[in-house]
Amino acid sequence: METREEVQILGAIGLRRRYRVLVAKLGLDGHDRGAKIVARALKDAGFEVIYTGIKQTPEMVVRSAIQEDVDVIGISILSGAHMALVPEVLRLLKEYKADDIPVVVGGIIPWDDAIKLKSMGVSEVFFPDTPLSHIIEKIKELAEKRRKGLE
């Protein structure tokens, strides 16, 4: 439950409730500076952020997302393994009947791979030059859409 001040802040930035976002680093990628910057920006924008840390498996990410009842999963990946790991996350979400949770991916993703990931079910792909304001707005939009679908 939010305090009165938190409710006022949420209202001032246009959030009806505190949305929950899981930010994860998949695979052996140990470079998490960008993920931490995005996680902090989301937190500052009023989101509740669950940061899983580095070296997560698709199974760990999906289980954490379900247990934490998140509205959006954000995956940061710089290792080049996105075409193997992200589809596995999508598969597991479907297997666990949680494929209503939108997945966004950010990092070093070639344009052609971004198109393929979106065709597989990824909601959005963010590149290194994506402004934080755009990331926040898109995640807010996805979280609101998911919550409306649950009502």
Short description:
The protein has a five-stranded parallel sheet, with helices on both faces.
Explain what this protein looks like in three dimensions:
Strand 1, helix 2 (33-44) and strand 2 (48-51) form a beta-alpha-beta unit. Strands 2-1-3-4-5 form a five-stranded parallel beta sheet, sandwiched between helices. It has helices at residues 4-12, 33-44, 58-67, 82-95, 111-120, 132-150; strands at 20-25, 48-51, 72-77, 103-107, 124-126. The mean pLDDT is 90. It is of the alpha/beta class and 151 residues long. The chain has a single domain, classed as Rossmann fold. The protein is built from six helices and five strands.
Search tags:
Rossmann fold; five-stranded parallel beta sheet; alpha/beta; 151 residues; 5 strands
What overall form do the CA principal axes indicate? globular
CATH architecture heading:
3-Layer(aba) Sandwich
Mean pLDDT metric: 90
State Rg.
15 Å
What quaternary form is this?
A: single chain
Secondary structure: elements and pairs:
Elements: H1 4-12, E1 20-25, H2 33-44, E2 48-51, H3 58-67, E3 72-77, H4 82-95, E4 103-107, H5 111-120, E5 124-126, H6 132-150
Parallel strand pairs: 1-2, 1-3, 3-4, 4-5
Helix pairs in contact: 3-4
